Amino acid sequence: MTISRADCAALDADDPLKHLRDEFVLPDETIYLVGNSLGAMPVAASAATARVVTEEWGRQLVGGWNSAGWFDLPLTTGDRLAPMIGAGPGQVAVGDTTSIAIVKAVSAAMRLRPGRRVVVSDLANFPTDRYVVEGLVKAVGGYEVRDLGVLDEVLADDVACVLMSEVDYRTGERHDTAAVTARVQAAGALMIWDLCHSAGAYRVDVSQADFAVGCTYKYLNAGPGAPAFVYAHPRHHAEAEQMLTGWHGHAAPFAFEPGYRPAEGIRRFTVGTPHVLSFAPLNASLDIWERVDLDQVRAKSVALTSLFIELVEKLCAPYGLEVVTPRDPERRGSQVSLRHPDGYPVMRALIDRGVHGDFRAPDILRFGFAPLYIRYVDVYDAAAILAEVLDKEHWRDERYQQRLAVT
Amino acid sequence: MTISRADCAALDADDPLKHLRDEFVLPDETIYLVGNSLGAMPVAASAATARVVTEEWGRQLVGGWNSAGWFDLPLTTGDRLAPMIGAGPGQVAVGDTTSIAIVKAVSAAMRLRPGRRVVVSDLANFPTDRYVVEGLVKAVGGYEVRDLGVLDEVLADDVACVLMSEVDYRTGERHDTAAVTARVQAAGALMIWDLCHSAGAYRVDVSQADFAVGCTYKYLNAGPGAPAFVYAHPRHHAEAEQMLTGWHGHAAPFAFEPGYRPAEGIRRFTVGTPHVLSFAPLNASLDIWERVDLDQVRAKSVALTSLFIELVEKLCAPYGLEVVTPRDPERRGSQVSLRHPDGYPVMRALIDRGVHGDFRAPDILRFGFAPLYIRYVDVYDAAAILAEVLDKEHWRDERYQQRLAVT
């Protein structure tokens, strides 16, 4: 028995989160399944940003550092974000980019495990995770980056820390953070999680991890280039020394002391002047998240991704499409990845028909299902249009074959 | 013969830049002499930011990385900013914070002078410059930070690079960049300039320097936490390896290669995903700068600061105020610093009367004169109100004595 579009419409009518779709700007004629890359814009983001520009900067000018709370934005915003990842107040600092956040976390971990000279990085990590670790290790010298193969084999007593992504950006596979963290820590190493593809997709829990990093422009809907975050477990706050020692992480930034003295707590993970404007949409987005039940988010995410997998297997079976994401809902995030040898032109043909996913080399089609604004009928239509593109071989059209500069 | 307020009004009437004041939002009843800390808001910044939020993010969503040019923002914006500092196209990358930009420049310089193990940092640098160098050197190991005392004495053959601010953030003193650069380079070291207090104040020329960094939220009027910039001389583009090797600096960021391969040219100085929203006011501000004659800016800056010094010396002579900034216009930026033992309450009393400068411990009162929007009558009024605050000892009022958390 195949589920029908009418069945999907009925599921939407019963969806306890259905009212949230109206809080996002979604273009007409588009099924936006790229919320795992750049989340849709909260309607409130526009007014929130305008307020910071015209009322705060425009009227309060330099006084805004006090009167508008700019100086503390990295920490006040971090406290609001913390419950999304299982952290408490004073444990998350928002700012910079994920790449920079990784440098903070890994450099702090290296310093906390001085005898150990190996940083383990998952080959399945998003490339920037590996690139920045490579640059850091090269600069520091005397360290080695080891690829994560089989976890228990790699965990020798020379490992300082392990950097892994909770959800694989390509396959959508989700790792068991509690189990992995426990094994890494049992081996004497520190565990650092990259939450880029999980924060905002469901209730993340890194409360046992040593450090975590992530971005806010995917499921957290905070806009292009929105600030990243870094979490540090309180047991490390007193000792952690991350290497990017800018003045905002100083114990007394306005005392203009000659030497660096790290601030207490998570503030020592801040660096330079925060990008004030870029915090506005994030806080507008967190206004929504504070009203959302994360268990309902997860239930809907599982339902959407399960439905998509089911429909793809039913409708697209004859066309050489492989479902890469694990079938077990516990083992996936809120993304479904499919493999097709001509993935690139297939995705372009899909986008031309209003179904927006993205492509990751060499052959992965990714579809993200942001539970706050994606409907069951969207899932149905996306699978049906995908089947049509494959059945009619639309993707063979030459205009889909040519590579764009950025995909 | 003392200049009168009417004389100042006449100077304003003849000011070739007077029309620019209308392009900025300036609060009523305020003389804003803190443009050297946070520049005033260009009127156009509001619409520019709204357009990026609602039209680019809201409508183009993830497609904005191509269609709205987000991906290239660090370089396209850098090319627009380049003429302000004497650089050419392809030599400036915008993004991150000044603190992070310093890590890029200094780590690249260290790698380019591998045998030399000393980083010279001016004690007069803004503290973050020293803090981040301290953190970098500590992480890398085997290096030493040496304070800049007398330049010719410090320039031994173990010096890899020298980091100096073109304009001293406290005293407003301006250094001779050409002469200092030549001496540093003659000693085999690399010269890195911090332009935070000079870019946008006059025509900067770092074309002979090796690297330069700066912020855009002071005289460049790009808003609180606007992105910083880094300049690298083309002779270093092929060899420079800065240590923050994020994916945006990769030769092929969307190929998702396992290892880091730096991009050609200045792009290798970019790191993570650019803070797209924070670029909007900067580009709105550069629209203004592209219509401005920098020689007129400098001429007005010299006139404003000279007038302020003259008036302060005339009106405030009896009150123990010392002019810290050099009298020679060639040796100062666009800021005048005064010293007073009770500088903190004096500044608070001034602000209470609508004259906004700022205070830097232990005893410096700073007044920035942004030539795009400060008038001669503002200078007159500021000096007159300062004289009154001192004459009537308004600053002794107890409400001005108590310290604020952030000053």
Automatic annotation (TrEMBL), chains A, B:
Required cofactor names: pyridoxal 5'-phosphate
UniProt xrefs under Gene3D superfamilies: Aspartate Aminotransferase, domain 1, Type I PLP-dependent aspartate aminotransferase-like (Major domain)
Keyword field: Hydrolase, Pyridine nucleotide biosynthesis, Pyridoxal phosphate
Enzyme Commission number(s): 3.7.1.3
InterPro entries documented for this protein: Kynureninase, PyrdxlP-dep_Trfase, PyrdxlP-dep_Trfase_major, PyrdxlP-dep_Trfase_small
The keyword Hydrolase belongs to this UniProt entry's keyword annotation: yes
Top-level class of the enzyme under EC nomenclature: hydrolase
Source domain of life: Bacteria
Pathway involvement of the protein, from the record: Cofactor biosynthesis; NAD(+) biosynthesis; quinolinate from L-kynurenine: step 2/3; Amino-acid degradation; L-kynurenine degradation; L-alanine and anthranilate from L-kynurenine: step 1/1
Catalysed conversion reaction: L-kynurenine + H2O = anthranilate + L-alanine + H(+); 3-hydroxy-L-kynurenine + H2O = 3-hydroxyanthranilate + L-alanine + H(+)
Binding site for pyridoxal 5'-phosphate: 98-99, 126-129, 194, 197, 217, 247, 273
Gene Ontology MF term list: kynureninase activity
Biological function: Catalyzes the cleavage of L-kynurenine (L-Kyn) and L-3-hydroxykynurenine (L-3OHKyn) into anthranilic acid (AA) and 3-hydroxyanthranilic acid (3-OHAA), respectively.
NCBIfam families linked: kynureninase
Subunit structure: Homodimer.
Family, similarity comment: Belongs to the kynureninase family.
Protein name per Swiss-Prot or TrEMBL: Kynureninase
Organism: Streptosporangium brasiliense
Gene designation: kynU
